[in-house]
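Hey,
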Amino acid sequence: MKPALKIVLASPRGFCAGVDRAIQIVEKALIKFGAPVYVRHEIVHNRFVVESLIAKGAIFVDELDEVPDNRPVIFSAHGVPKSVPNTAKARQMIYVDATCPLVSKVHREVEHHQSKGRKIILIGHLNHPEVIGTMGQVPEGSVILVQSVEEVEALPDLSKEELAYATQTTLSVDEAKDIIEALQKKFPHILGPRKEDICYATTNRQLAVKTIAGSVDAMIVIGAPNSSNSMRLVEVAKQYGCENARMFQRAKDLDWDWLTGVKRLGITAGASAPEVLVDEVIDACRRYFEVSVEEKSVTQENITFHVPKMLMEAA
């Protein structure tokens, strides 16, 4: 007889509006222009999604010099430095920018602060594509990147400078709060965004994990190791009562020995992981356990982002 397993699904989970829009952009571009359509970097950080788009005719590249002049290219949801569309324009390429509108909002903030002569402090993770894109909106040297409270404390005296801060959209809400407080303490005159930069989907998925973490024996986060928002969900689960939290990309990656003795299993998915991967994990669990499923919802999401006009007519 199989042991009983209660699966507690965190909600919201999985795809956010920005990811959904980015995938639609690639699919509609394939309809409008035919295959192949080129994509600079992973459109979103999920191999399942990337491989499904490759099967439809997308070709993923690292840089524009790998793209022929006569084929369209799409920029990923994480955003790109200004130099990328500038190069595409110079080559008279057809390009579509799939940058999430909430990332674009941060880009505009950074540009605004730079135009007013302010030094910008960006809270984010070194070498993350979103951070590279945000820093690339303004001249080199305009932005100082900080990743921790310790790095804030190590900053030089900038009291004579006009200062502003912005954040990567996929940070841990709690960690970002600590870093912002450290910045405001060190530089009381620093300006912040009118509305916080961490996106609604990141906030909601972390809140959902916080809500169930203390009541489960283990937590699975379905996501990719290069996905910032997915990595943060593992950290949040551990911080809020479920030390036994791990990330897996697919059901085939699950560690069944790790689940021995688990009676209540929390499951969530990062913002770039489709719901089909959640279903796949639940189905895999049914092979080893007598499964019952309960969903814990903290809020409903009804945000959608439109695709660019040039793709609107693509059926």
